């Protein structure tokens, strides 16, 4: 690995870390704890563990495409879009307490992740496959988001 490769990998990791800060800036807190949730809701301690792994996979995925093909406009515009939508979800759900808006965002996020994987595939099959666990988790999160909204919409707990 060259110095340039290492620096770009570090850049992808830093970008993923920046997006991950949305979970720190907009923490679930007491409001979320008081919401009704489906019985299949993962334990709170699972979220930072899973997201840490996923953010590393996302960073590695982007780096593999960069390494294979350089800065390709379509794949990296999609990559940036899914990262922005990822950050936005925490703000909408936890910051603004708008689960319905967050549901729209996470639907777009799932689409953006799938399109990113498809755009990455011609450059690196491994990079595309590294996004599959991310897409799966986003789909689970979307179902959880929908369930929380449905279980609580009549209670007046949303801003």
Automatic annotation (TrEMBL):
<keyword id="KW-1133">Transmembrane helix</keyword>
<dbReference type="InterPro" id="IPR038330">
    <property type="entry name" value="TspO/MBR-related_sf"/>
</dbReference>
<comment type="similarity">
    <text>Belongs to the TspO/BZRP family.</text>
</comment>
<dbReference type="GO" id="GO:0016020">
    <property type="term" value="C:membrane"/>
</dbReference>
<dbReference type="GO" id="GO:0033013">
    <property type="term" value="P:tetrapyrrole metabolic process"/>
</dbReference>
<feature type="transmembrane region" description="Helical">
    <location>
        <begin position="6"/>
        <end position="26"/>
    </location>
</feature>
<dbReference type="InterPro" id="IPR004307">
    <property type="entry name" value="TspO_MBR"/>
</dbReference>
<keyword id="KW-0472">Membrane</keyword>
<dbReference type="Pfam" id="PF03073">
    <property type="entry name" value="TspO_MBR"/>
</dbReference>
<feature type="transmembrane region" description="Helical">
    <location>
        <begin position="127"/>
        <end position="146"/>
    </location>
</feature>
<keyword id="KW-0812">Transmembrane</keyword>
<feature type="transmembrane region" description="Helical">
    <location>
        <begin position="100"/>
        <end position="121"/>
    </location>
</feature>
<protein>
    <submittedName>
        <fullName>Tryptophan-rich sensory protein</fullName>
    </submittedName>
</protein>
<feature type="transmembrane region" description="Helical">
    <location>
        <begin position="72"/>
        <end position="93"/>
    </location>
</feature>
<feature type="transmembrane region" description="Helical">
    <location>
        <begin position="46"/>
        <end position="66"/>
    </location>
</feature>
């Amino acid at each position: 690995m060259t110095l340039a490769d290492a620096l770009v990998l570090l850049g992808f990791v830093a970008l993923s870390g920046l997006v991950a800060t949305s979970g720190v800036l907009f923490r679930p807190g007491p409001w979320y704890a008081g919401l009704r949730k489906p019985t299949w809701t993962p334990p709170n301690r699972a979220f930072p563990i899973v997201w840490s792994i996923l953010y590393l996979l996302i960073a590695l995925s982007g780096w593999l495409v960069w390494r294979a093909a350089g800065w390709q406009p379509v794949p990296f515009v999609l990559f940036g879009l899914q990262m922005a939508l990822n950050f936005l979800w925490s703000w909408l759900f936890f910051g603004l307490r708008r689960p319905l808006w967050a549901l729209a965002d996470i639907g777009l996020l799932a689409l953006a992740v799938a399109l990113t994987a498809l755009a990455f595939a011609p450059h690196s099959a491994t990079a595309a496959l590294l996004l599959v666990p991310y897409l799966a988790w986003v789909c689970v999160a979307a179902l959880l988001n929908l369930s929380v909204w449905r279980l609580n919409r009549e209670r007046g707990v949303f801003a």
